[in-house]
Amino acid sequence: MVSNSFKPMQLRGTASFRRSSAALFLSVMLSSDNVLLLTLWNSMSLTRLMHTIRETVSEIAKRRQVPVLIIDEASLLRIEVFAQLHTLGQFEMDSKPVLPIILAGQNNLLDKLLYITSRPLASRVIGRSHLEGLKRKDMAGYLKHHLQIAGIKEQLFSEEAILAIHQGSGGLLRRANLLAKGALIAAAREKCTVVSAEHVRMASTEIF
Questions:
Q1: How far apart are CA 188 and CA 152, in angstroms?
Q2: Which partner for 109 in 42, 84, 105, 161 could form a disulfide, CB atoms 3.0-4.6 Å apart?
């Protein structure tokens, strides 16, 4: 089970750690990854979805690969789904469980696992990991990296703005992205070439 900041990168690494494994990504939020499973999740009933996953797991197992079900944004799942995941995790072949499940989400994922109906699944969790936010020194590099992706070589954020983004986001990338984007818009409105801490403050009042 993984919670917080760098989930996408961690999940991609987890999925590729063994050549003999095959990952089934299931995201509760729409994204560009794994469109098939996303479509199944949004259009099928829970019963039909579970049946489809079981069929897929069986096909993977026949290829002598180890299937791994990775559910991103699991903190958004309805409570009743966790009971279904428990039965899904008991999928066995040759008396051995063949479906490891990785749940990734925000901190309230832990709260949902404390519900009575979620306890059977929670009792099977063998490992937990909490991903911490970026440190102050890493935030500047993170912002610079994204600017370079956009084709911008200059550092558009002042040191004060970077500090404000780090403090306002707590080092969490999702919040940092929102603050940085909002601050860039605020700076553009004032026709400023460098984002200041005040621009970050203006962005925070609109976002949070």
A1: 15
A2: 105
